[in-house]
């Protein structure tokens, strides 16, 4: 595993690292600008499978952060890439929104409710009892159960919302089958991201704010890991886990290259 000075490529989480409640975290725009000016390969990773990279790029721009859509890697893209390698031109029943539906179409999948190879559960704010019932019946009839991410809840102004992991659990209870989850903390998502930018684990760093997803997956993928304290982690949270990040910093502002003296 490389030291910080040996890192040539970066992967970074989005929420809690670059933005917080639709506002840029101080230092994030400057760090991304440095990477672009230096020609440093990077990807912004997110378990959010609702939005396409184009949507997320626009949302980040509104927060004051410039990230081209080809520098964004979502759990939806990772899921579609994985399934495309497993069954080129395959069939799937997908529960989700534009992010996962677009990714699956672009990976060459045919969407069908008739005997699909896969049932893919992504995130949506409009889970319907009918769609979940259909997913359960298709899985019971032999479709393979795939999920974009394991996050049980998502944030909102009013409080937590049930998210993909909660729906996964409901379907598991009804089918007695666990999903294969492609998004973080599965190192699969990191490996597909590395492939996307032609990077190697030996000289790539991962920046995240969660020990249980970003950091553990980065460690398992062999990356240099940086935990920022600008998201949900505090020292008590860190102490709960038997593993440690390579570095812990207050925020991405601490990763900015210092100007040369003189």
For the record, the CATH class of the largest domain is Alpha Beta
Domains, number? 2
CATH architecture heading of the largest domain = 3-Layer(aba) Sandwich
Low-confidence stretches: none
Gyration radius, in Å: 19 Å
Topology as a string of helices (H) and strands (E): EEEHEHEHEHEEHEEEHEHEHEHE
Q: How large a portion of the residues is in β-strands, by DSSP E?
A: 15-25%
Structural class: alpha/beta
Name its key features:
Rossmann fold; about 20% strand; 5-stranded parallel sheet; 2 domains; about 260 residues; alpha/beta; single chain
Task: Lay out the secondary structure.
Elements: E1 9-13, E2 19-20, E3 23-24, H1 28-38, E4 42-46, H2 53-62, E5 72-74, H3 75-86, E6 91-95, H4 98-106, E7 110-111, E8 118-121, H5 129-140, E9 144-147, E10 153-154, E11 161-162, H6 164-175, E12 180-181, H7 187-197, E13 204-208, H8 211-220, E14 224-228, H9 235-239, E15 247-249
Helix pairs in contact: 3-4, 3-7, 5-6
Commentary on this structure:
With 262 residues, the protein is an alpha/beta fold. The chain has nine helices and 15 strands. It has helices at 28-38, 53-62, 75-86, 98-106, 129-140, 164-175, 187-197, 211-220, 235-239; strands spanning 9-13, 19-20, 23-24, 42-46, 72-74, 91-95, 110-111, 118-121, 144-147, 153-154, 161-162, 180-181, 204-208, 224-228, 247-249. Strands 5-4-1-13-14-15 form a six-stranded parallel sheet, sandwiched between helices. The chain has a five-stranded parallel sheet with strand order 7-6-8-9-12, with helices on both faces. It is globular and about 60 Å long. The model has no long low-confidence stretch (mean pLDDT 92).
């Amino acid at each position: 595993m490389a030291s910080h000075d040996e890192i040539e490529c970066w992967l970074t989480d989005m929420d809690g690292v670059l933005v917080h409640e639709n506002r840029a975290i101080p230092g994030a725009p400057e760090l991304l600008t440095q990477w672009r000016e230096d020609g440093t390969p990077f990807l912004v990773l997110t378990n959010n499978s609702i939005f396409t990279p184009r949507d997320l790029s626009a949302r980040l721009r509104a927060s004051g952060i410039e990230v081209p859509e080809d520098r964004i890697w979502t759990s939806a893209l990772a899921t579609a890439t994985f399934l495309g390698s497993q069954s080129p031109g395959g069939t799937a029943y997908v529960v989700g929104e534009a992010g996962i539906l677009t990714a699956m179409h672009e990976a060459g999948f045919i969407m069908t409710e008739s005997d699909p190879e896969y049932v893919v559960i992504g995130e949506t704010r409009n889970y319907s009892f009918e769609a979940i019932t259909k997913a359960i019946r298709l899985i019971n009839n032999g479709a393979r159960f795939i999920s974009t991410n394991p996050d049980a809840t998502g944030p909102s102004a009013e409080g937590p919302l049930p998210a993909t992991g909660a729906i996964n659990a409901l379907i598991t209870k009804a089918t007695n089958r666990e999903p294969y989850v492609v998004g973080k903390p599965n190192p699969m998502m990191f490996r597909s991201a590395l492939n996307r930018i032609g990077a190697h684990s030996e000289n790539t760093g991962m920046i995240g704010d969660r020990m249980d997803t970003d950091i553990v997956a980065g460690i398992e993928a062999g990356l240099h890991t940086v935990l920022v304290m600008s998201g949900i982690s505090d020292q008590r949270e860190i102490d709960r886990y038997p593993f440690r990040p390579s570095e812990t910093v207050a925020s991405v502002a601490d990763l900015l290259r210092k100007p040369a003296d003189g």
